[in-house]
């Protein structure tokens, strides 16, 4: 395997690891809504990632990432937290924009005074 191919593979592994870590923290937040519990559980998650920080073998890293992604999929919350104003949130599109077929009048009844 060429040096460029190894560098590309390592870059993709780092990217997968970052994405996995962010998703793991978001999953922890789904289970532990209170911040004090989230900080404790988030630290445990960080320690699990730090335990494998110095692994250099590319195949071992791929295996660890695959196992982590499978574990994350298994531990997903059945009703994850959604920010209220995001799609799927309780406030999303509560006040939708005015349809373009309805014209807005900004002079509030004074249109005949021109």
UniProtKB/TrEMBL annotation:
Residues 15-72 form the Complex 1 LYR protein domain. It holds the Pfam family Complex1_LYR. CDD domains: Complex1_LYR_NDUFB9_LYRM3. It is found in: Mitochondrion inner membrane. Its main location: mitochondrion. It is a peripheral membrane protein. The keyword Transport applies. Keywords: Acetylation, Electron transport, Membrane, Mitochondrion, Mitochondrion inner membrane, Phosphoprotein, Respiratory chain, Transport. InterPro entries: Complex1_LYR_dom (IPR008011), Complex1_LYR_NDUFB9_LYRM3 (IPR045292), NDUFB9 (IPR033034). It comes from the Eukaryota. Mammalian complex I is composed of 45 different subunits. Belongs to the complex I LYR family. Accessory subunit of the mitochondrial membrane respiratory chain NADH dehydrogenase (Complex I), that is believed to be not involved in catalysis. Complex I functions in the transfer of electrons from NADH to the respiratory chain. The immediate electron acceptor for the enzyme is believed to be ubiquinone. This is NADH dehydrogenase [ubiquinone] 1 beta subcomplex subunit 9.
